[in-house]
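Before drawing any conclusions, I needed to go through one protein's amino acid sequence and its backbone structure tokens, quoted below without any editing.
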Amino acid sequence: MKDRLSIEKLTSLLPFSVVEIIAPIGIFIFTIGLYATTIAPSLSWGFNNYGIDSGELLSAAKTLGIPHPPGYPTYTLLLHLYSKIVQIGDLAFRGNTFSTLNASITILIIYFIIQKFCTLLEITKTRIETIICATIGSVIIITAPLFWANSLITEVYTLNTVFVSLLILLSLKITEKNTKNKKLFLIFGLFSGLGIGNHLTLIFISAPLILWITHSHQYNKKKLSLLILGFLIGCAIYLYLPIRALSSPPINWGNPVDLNSFLWVITAEPYKNLVLGVNQSLLIARLSSWSTIILNQFTFLGLFIGLMAPPLLYKKQRWFLICSTTSMIFFLIYSITYNSMDAEVLLLPIIIIFSIWVGIGFAVITAQIKKIIQSWTNFSYIHTHIFTIMAIFVLILISGLSITNNYKSLDLSNNQNALEYAKAVFDKIPNQPIPSLWKGRIYYKDQAIIIADNEQHVFSLWYLLYGTKSNKNVMVISSRLLQFDWYIEQIRNQYPFQIPSDSITNFTAHERLKNIIEHNQDNVDIFFTYQTVLFPQIQEGLIYRLETAR
């Protein structure tokens, strides 16, 4: 007991104890260390094909282009800047480390959020207990398979978790009693706008938090005006889209140079049919599947611990309980009903929010156990160190088992399947054609054409074409994008010799493809990444050559 008191007296004399400094640094190092041993070395489709968009996002960042709707301007600009500063490995590896960095930042923010809640809720008696609770909540996220998998590849989701956690932390600061710093309202609005520039679903957490903030300040018009101003400034990041579209980058979805095309991109018009797109007869099965996914992140023990938080939150932080619960419901409904093969990644914000509950719930449970054994004289040592003992127990059963069970399947350290696929395709392409000068620009008249049909293939080939210094000058056509006028005009501008002018007229996608093939089949090699009975083909490795082509 004397030793314990002497340590507390010593730490109370310092503005930050040694443990308070070491704990977050240790968590950050553990995060980087675990992910560094499993990160993909280059372009990878990742675990469960979560990284299909990686090639496109990297290519857009390299060329300052516009990726698929809603355009992701915040992510594109930050990744472009990061890849310029961090000169390690190839572009894809830098994109992967960008995700790892964002994941590590998220973990640190969650750590400080739980610390803040322990103080506000008065559920821990010492700084050490507070640190232990914050460590539990943050470390559990690190080893959550879904979060782990998305931290190893190039994707927008870990940056989204940074914004989710940051907005929660700012909300806690703003809603504190006697908060006079008006700049926080501007900052909250700014990060809300910038975060929506990364992923539109951030609205599911920012909207409830804004209601909480405005209510806590009695709907103060001046403060609300600052928040709205910050939000508008943050959303101005979307002006990047028309500005860059005017420069005609090689990846330029929607060519948003006018209002209609701009709205087409930022509202994700081509994907609207996926929202609430899951057949009603499949919803029960999908809910069951999603429940299993969430269970795999926390285990039954983690879920039980997290569910101990709401009763206390209801008494002392009711508005946060309302905001967090509402937000998780929105994210859950959206992800369950979003009809895409990787819709489960939309559950990541739920994992982030629930981990805060886990940190709080751990404090609640441990404090109750501490009270029960307080009168047990034979268990004085356990009573003194109960938080440490419980923490070790929980971390072994949740995080330890997660690492043991998932390390092998999540290990991408030897996985660069997307890059290998693209290289295998390019290796089948003839040598570089002779360049020609036309209207002051260099073109290749005898340029081979690759026709790809799905995002997995198109985006990987785009990466090799635009994201690396490939020695092959080939033309990659997305057969699915030929349905859009902006796309046919874009490739016509890029490849005036290969795309006939009459293809821009109101043809169907198939008619446009047929027109392009007929225009080029006697002059260049034409390849498909897929097999089709519509055109005669000869298989050559992973691709199919048009039989009548040269």
About this structure: Residues 17-177+236-410 form one domain.
